[in-house]
Amino acid sequence: MKVQIILLLVFSFSICSTNAQQEENYDYFKPNREMIASGVQAILTCNGLFTSERTIDQVYDQELKYLPRPVGTARGGDYRIDREKKAVAIGVPGGTPVMRAAFRDGIGCIILPPDQTFADIDRLPVQTLPPLEGDPANIAWPDGDKTPALSIPEHINVNALEAASNWAFDRESTEQVTLSLLVVHKGNIIHERYAAGVNRSTKTRTWSTAKSIAVTLMGILSDQGKLQLDQPLSFDWLPEIKSPGTDDPRSEITLRHVLNMSSGLYNVDSRRMEYATGSGLAYWAGASIVNGALNRGLIRKPGTYWDYENYDTILGVLAMKKAVGGNAQTWMEFPRKALLDKIGMRNTFLSTDRFGDFVLSSQVYTNARDLARFGLLYLQNGQWNGEQIISEDWIKFVRTPAPATKNIGNMYGGQWWLVPDNRTDVPKDAYSTAGNRGQYVIVVPGHDLVIVRRGLDYGRQGFNRWDLTREVLKAFK
Question: With a threshold of 0.85, does the pTM exceed it?
Answer without folding.
Answer: yes
